[in-house]
Amino acid sequence: MPAIEKLGAATRTSSLWSPDDVTVIFVLGGPGAGKGTQCAKLVSDYGFRHLSAGDLLREEQNRPGSEFGEMIKAYIKEGTIVPMEVTVQLLENAMKATMEKEKGNNKPMFLIDGFPRKLDQAHAFERSVVPSRFTLFYDCPENVMEERLINRGKTSGRADDNMESIRKRFRVFVETSMPVVDEFEKQDKVVKVEAVKSPEEVYEETKAKLKERGIEPIHLVFVKN
Ligand code: C5P
Ligand code: MG
């Protein structure tokens, strides 16, 4: 990737795509709220493409020769937000690759999970990539998220699923990410789901709320010969 100040989010003055070409739904919620779990379910029932900002950052961090690897590693360990130009570029690249691969298919629909975690990311993405349709927000109290993260930490191998990093990530979520939810809320672009119950129950509420916004599962038709 080119230097940070040369990336699209920093230089482009209009959006790459229009919401008529591609649907983007942001998926937010504190660490451990269940974003990834719900996204996996939505992918199989709705035909969404799932992009996790955190996963893309970890991938870039581990890519041999990445000029941003060391920087990303330090931010993730501290639970702070990586400079938005990098994350927006990784998302843009991943969207392009998916669209290229599926050229000619139906209108692409993306769930972008764990993004935007900061107002500058939200503004840069909507300005230079594509405006989102709405944000799916998984609301969960910290004690529940903490328990889930500690459990996940036993097997995830993630450098940030430990008590010290978790505390920092909670603080960043409240101070830096909630303002994004609040701003979208004012635009009536937040779909809030309670995320305390079991994954199946949370998913039922998710489906009901998506339906209210006109988004329905895809029904596969099997044709008998
Ligand atoms: O979403 P996830 O928990 O996988 O994110 C892990 C870390 O990646 C975050 O704590 C943060 O350091 C970084 N991140 C970021 N910007 C995003 C998403 C993740 O800086 N939009
Ligand atoms: Mg995740």
Features:
single chain; 225 residues; alpha/beta; Rossmann fold; five-stranded parallel beta sheet; 9 helices; 12% strand; globular; binds cytidine-5'-monophosphate; binds magnesium ion
Q: Spell out the CATH superfamily of one domain.
A: P-loop containing nucleotide triphosphate hydrolases
Gross morphology is globular
Write the element-wise H/E pattern from the N-terminal end onward. HEHEHHHEHEHHEH
Mean pLDDT, all residues = 95
Unique bound compounds: cytidine-5'-monophosphate, magnesium ion
Number of helices: 9
CATH architectural label of one domain: 3-Layer(aba) Sandwich
The biggest beta sheet is recorded as: 5 strands, parallel
Strand residues, percent: 5-15%
How many strand segments?
Answer: 5
Distance between the termini: 50 Å
Q: What's the CATH first level of one domain?
A: Alpha Beta
**What radius of gyration results from the CA coordinates?**
17 Å
Unreliable parts = none
User: How are the strands of the largest sheet arranged?
Assistant: 2-3-1-4-5
Structural class: alpha/beta
Helix content: 40-55%
Concise account of the structure shown:
The chain has 225 residues and is of the alpha/beta class. It has helices at 8-11, 35-46, 53-62, 69-78, 84-101, 119-128, 142-156, 163-186, 199-212; strands at residues 23-29, 49-52, 109-113, 134-139, 190-194. Strands 2-3-1-4-5 form a 5-stranded parallel beta sheet, sandwiched between helices.
Give your account of this protein's structure.
The chain is built from nine helices and five strands; from the N terminus they run αβαβαααβαβααβα. It is of the alpha/beta class and 225 residues long. Helix 2 crosses helix 9 (199-212) and helix 3 (53-62) crosses helix 5. Bound molecules: cytidine-5'-monophosphate and magnesium ion. The site of cytidine-5'-monophosphate has 17 residues, from helix 3 and helix 4.
